[in-house]
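Blinded run. Sample ID left blank on purpose so nobody reads anything into the name before looking at the predicted structure. Input follows.
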Amino acid sequence: MKYHQIDSALFIKNRQHFMAKMKPASLAVFNSNDIYPVSADSTMPFDQHRDIFYLSGVDQEESVLVLFPDCPKEKHREILFLKETSEHIAVWEGEKLTKEAAFKTAGIQTVYWLKDLEKILFELSTQCNTFYINTNEHYRANVETETREDRFTKWLLAKYPAHSVAKSNPILQELRAVKDPIELDLMQQACDITEKGFRRILNFIKPSVWEYEIEAELVHEFIINRSKGFAYTPIIAAGNNANVLHYIENNQQCKAGDLILLDVAAEYANYKSDLTRTIPVSGKFTDRQKAVYNAVNTVKKEATKLLVPGAYWEQYHEEVGKLMTSELLGLGLLDKADVQHQDKDWPAYKKYFMHGTSHHIGLDTHDYGLLHLPIEENMVFTVEPGIYIPEEGFGVRLEDDVVVQKSGAPFNLMGNIPIEADEIEALMNKG
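Blinded prediction complete.
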């Protein structure tokens, strides 16, 4: 891995918190992701399942974590099963975790090779009443592929039909939503790498530059700072491309007078950052572009203040809608009649701001978090309002990542990344 080793204390705490919420005499199993084929002998780069990483720090394929806090044998209360390493594997694939390295990574004493999983699990099955299975219950999930976790669950339920079944995901949704100080530090590192990339391209962007050239500059900066690269597929959208919310082609040339919307950010140690900035290709906003830009920035600042403990998701977005409506009226994009006759299920402001303002962020860009529960201290959210005006050929979105505090406004992990229009212009025109 490119990142520095994470303190195993994080994963020890995470497991303790999870096991504290398990039913008596219950056992939970977590699997690594598959290595997905492309064609022939080609595969996609391995990307670890976030749940097993959250609980163990293990970042390699063919790994299994078993948690059984009530097991009569103390050594079997936490078990890692790993792909057996060898000199041959070390030569052809690179060194895999040894039992000693696994302990250093995860803080788990008991490590078996994967070939022993069925035998050990049978022994454990005679000592537990309930299996916790891990399913994807994220509110944005739309998965057609059967995962390694899915296949294991099928096998487990067929093999042990007399056992009760419980769900791991609601526990993980609750736990992963609130970040540990070690996690916040890792996310800050991801944001700091993103800052380096953004400052790099401020001096690079000019008329005639291609969107993919900007992408190349960013990924270079990210990787030399120990990131795997982009936290998500980058959006580099010049001119009217900004009005396509998930524009990812990044294949057009930037033109003088255009704005370019950059939804680009780095990961670090599997933790994500999520940044959006909109900047003038020629280094200076027009009066109209600046007016829209400042309106979006105003909404972003005021929306951020609303992310406090005890607030609820739905009400938060309703309040942001009121903020945006006010700004759109000031820009002449809406009039009073539009607001008076609006559909309550699709308010007038949605014509120009049609997506949500915030989402949880952490190990996933759209991270775990139960939206019907109140916001808590140390949750991390994006704040990303936008105004999109196809008829004027540009769109503006601004986005930072913020940590909810015990009281007062959230802490901005991206507070050092330039955002004010005048500062952007000054940096782009710096000699």
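Unblinding after everyone has recorded impressions. Residues 36 and 145 are 10 Å apart (CA to CA).
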